[in-house]
Amino acid sequence: MRWYEPLRQNQVEQIHEASLQILEKTGVDFHHPPAIEILSRSGAKTEGERVFFPPRLVEEQVKKSPDRFKLYARNSEWDVEFGGEKMVFCPGYGAPFVMDIESGRRNGTLEDFKRFVQLTQASVYQDICSGMVIEPNDVPYGKRHAQMLYTTVRYSDKCFMGSPMGARAARDSIQMASILFGSKADLIEKPRFISLLGALTPLKYDNRTLEAIMAYADAGQPLIISTLGIEGATAPVTLAGTLALQNAEVLAGIVLTQLVREGTPVIFGGVSSSAEMRLGTLSIGSPEMAINTAATAQMARYYRLPSRSGGAVCDAKIADVQAAYESMMNLMMAQVSGIHFVLHSAGILETYNCMSYEKFVIDDETCGMVKKTRRAYEVNPETLAVDLVKEVGPGGHFLDKKHTLDHFKDELYQPMLSNRDNYHNWFAKGSPQAIDSATKKYKEILENHVPPDLPLGVNRGLQEFIAAI
Predict the structure, then answer these.
(1) Which of 105, 330, 423, 449 could link 118 by a cystine bridge, Cβ 3.0 to 4.6 Å?
(2) CA Rg, the chain, in Å?
């Protein structure tokens, strides 16, 4: 498949060279002595917490991460592959607030977290459960990471995400996965989860992030190394300058993962966007976000790595028309540019700050449309249907033909939410708007959700582990 690529090949090379210069001449601050030590032993120059990367070290290590890999779910029907032409969707991540049209905006709770896991499990388009779909503010911080992971595996048998909250949370995620799936050696053999970690732009990795990167890499679990530069604020205002800075930060993190464990699967991520210059705040519903997505995918292909971007993201405060057009712009750009892992594919409002129940199901419908557009044409005598066209002839129709009945479910996207009635039928049903249909739909899903089986011994082991934290 041919992807949309905003950069010419010589421009890709220029971005790469600029990133190597940043890494070699300016360097990156690593606030974690063990990370500095391993980098220093491998040939990086260090001055205190500043690490300077020789170009050869960067290029050698980045080549060691695979161009594709697989995660194994508790239910093998939900195994996911990263790389090639695969596209994996995962809902929103990290929002402290929750919204629904009836109750309005509020702090997220563990009950909200559970409900979004249930919505994810019920979706045929969301491939992975988000590790932090919302912040459950009613759970003590010290247990929050473990309670979120437990809730995820209790109500879903899809793949999931590990906690990014430092060494302890990473070790707890690994241990809980071991209780669920077997030994740590089994996890290395068949990776079960993935984690999102990245730099603090510009050019810093904090202690907590580095601890988690090293713990997960040592355990052989895949990582998304991703950064977010804000053009005009934490990164140069130019698209090229931000991309070069983002690229340098991601490469630095990938080098560390390969030095900890050679061959650790890594997804090359980038979600940089623009500052709203009138306010000095981040905007993710901007065309700059979409352009950076396409450029990130292009740079990942240059390094032969799977790529990550944002998805149905927006700056809108409610699930309105602004939310729809900004989200579809970003989601469709991820599709046409060849992004492999779309994080924030459903539910996000308010520049990552809020998850909406209604927007989740609206975005999920959009994800289905986008996945449909990703499918290539299947061209063969059966699909070309030349003989059938001859049989029907001019002025006929295909509605009652066996060929139509045999193929329409696979060929035609069937929406769960979109209204395709004629005007009179729609009006007779009370003129429902998308937001009304979305409210009805998410409630139906939650009411009918049946949790997948979790073996009694595993369930008890996970609960005892959390109680001991």
Answers:
(1) 449
(2) 23
Query: Which residue's structure tokens are 């409630």?
Result: 443
| Conformation bin of residue 435: beta by default, left when phi > 0, alpha when psi is -120 to 50 | alpha
Helix H or strand E encompassing 283:
strand 281-283
Cα distances from 3 to residues 66, 76, 104, 303, in angstroms, run 21, 30, 40, 16
Q: Burial code of 324-357, b = ≥16 C-beta within 10 A, e = fewer?
A: bebbbbbbbbbbbbbbbbbbbbbbbbbbbebbbb
Strand blocks (E) in 112-167: 160-161
* Residue range 337-351, pLDDT digits in tens: 999 999 999 999 999
Quote the tokens at residue 155: 């109500």
Q: Under 8 Å CB-to-CB from 374, ≥6 apart: which residues?
A: 85, 87, 335
In one-letter notation, the amino acid at residue 459 is N
In which region does residue 402 sit, left (phi positive, over 0), alpha (psi from -120 to 50) or beta (all else)? alpha
464: left (phi over 0), alpha (psi -120 to 50) or beta: alpha
pLDDT tens-digit series, residues 57-88: 999 999 999 999 999 999 999 999 999 999 99
Domains with residue ranges and CATH for the chain: 69-374 (3.20.20.480), 381-411 (no CATH)
Q: Global pTM? A: 0.95
